[in-house]
């Protein structure tokens, strides 16, 4: 689009809130009960962090890579791309995050359990808990059907939030390569939700 | 073909144009009160073909992906649109799954001789444009498009020759260009002066009235049909208006809702051939089509409408 920078976010919105949330509803119905598996993976990430050790770090990286790859394929590529042509690029970015997780976390073993304390630990655990247990409840709390819940490992937002929380818990030195995709996704998704807000009634 | 057209001479001089504009309110009042149950029409200057003043846009409303229930609902919208006398449906490759959903809907209807299929080319490169046009045609499932427009003037230098060649070969009936949100009006004006365009598409509504200054008069002068997008500012205008009661004098132009008020303002401009509100609601389609029935505002009433909304 020419002069795209002169458009407001709302001008760029391609779909209605109803269509957006119906996407999650149909996705959840199609995939049930996979949601139980992905939430279990999220809980496993927490337990493995608690357990500590190099092997546990590698397993955490592999599990997260699996979730990112799944979201790239099943959500962005297969579903979101049907209403947003940009989603194919999001799929590539999520797949790239999965590759980075495999390379840095599994192959190079850089997910080293680090006994973080204080604010960093609270933020990390808080983000993961929010992504796993609170984010799926946001829709129903705001008046949408529980079928439209966005669940870790299935939907991109809670997956990105849990990723950021995990990164805070692992490694004394930040794994900078793993931050850009989830951070940029949070910004994109936040902008989308903000653009939809006045239409969401 | 409707019998209540407003025909404009192709070689209208500025003086004649002004005279026509002065007489427009009377014409609109007479022509707008057409056959009961059918929408008023206006002619496409380059051909004389009549088009109902209200069309159907597909931005956002038809981008429902693979949601079958939503697709079926959209098919009902198109069915109701045709039943109410509508013809022009507008889409673009930019609108996500909208083209595919229109194709799905038309296929469900099976028979749609009323359809005036308007689409766009939105890509860089001449060859890419040809490929995109063919893909769009397949998604709609139509033999040919009635109108193809260069979306937001993107690569117009490459696409207009393609579209004019298609028209010359009988593979297309009309050629146009589009803009929206009041952008690139200068470029559009240049092309309206230099290219043999049949249509332009632009944004015009009760609040965005910049087109009144140059583009709409130029369209009349050059004999170019005008499609108006964003007549409700993507719903924002109606949300603002909904906070206030419809003025009682709206009944003088047979308005029963703010949507009709906004649409009647747009389509009562003599240069406007068709407004394309987008909706996924059958109720709203019927309400929108109602704007092309009954009395249309004259010049005095148009000023009153704009002033009233400005002061809300």
Structure, described:
The complex is a heterodimer of chains A (201) and B (312). The longest helix of chain A is centred in the N-terminal third of the chain and has 24 residues, at 54-77. Helices cover 68% and strands 0% of the residues of chain A. Chain A has one domain (16-199). Chain A contains eight helices and no strands. Chain A is an all-alpha fold. The mean pLDDT of chain A is 91. By secondary structure, chain B is an alpha/beta fold. Chain B has one domain: Alpha-Beta Barrel (TIM Barrel), CATH 3.20.20. Chain B is built from eleven helices and nine strands. Chain B has helices at residues 14-32, 68-83, 98-109, 126-140, 156-168, 185-194, 215-222, 236-241, 258-267, 282-290, 299-310; strands spanning 41-43, 50-52, 88-90, 116-121, 145-150, 172-178, 199-203, 225-229, 274-275. In chain B, α2 (68-83) runs parallel beside α10, α3 runs parallel beside α4 (126-140) and α6 runs parallel beside α7 (215-222). Chain B is globular. The A-B interface holds A 1-3, 6-7, 10-11, 13-16, 19, 22-23, 26, 79, 82-85, 198-199 and B 60-61, 63-67, 70, 94-97, 152-154, 181, 183-184, 234-236, 239, 280.
What is the average of the pLDDT values of chain B? 88
β content of chain A, as a range?
A: under 5%
First-last Cα distance of chain B: 40 Å
CATH architecture of chain B: Alpha-Beta Barrel
Assembly state:
heterodimer
What is the CATH third-level topology name of chain B? TIM Barrel
Instruction: Tally the beta strands of chain B.
Output: 9
Helix content of chain A: 55-70%
Structural class of the helix and strand makeup of chain A? Answer: mainly alpha
Number of continuous helical runs of chain A: 8
Provide the number of structural domains of chain A.
1
Count, helices of chain B: 11
CATH homologous superfamily identity of chain B:
NADP-dependent oxidoreductase domain
Return the structural class of chain B: alpha/beta
Taking pLDDT < 50 over at least 5 consecutive residues as the criterion, the unreliable ranges of chain B are 1-34
Rg of chain A over CA atoms, rounded to whole Å, is 17 Å
Major β-sheet profile of chain B = 7 strands, parallel
**Beta strand count of chain A:** 0
- Global mean pLDDT of chain A: 91
Largest beta-sheet characterization of chain A:
none
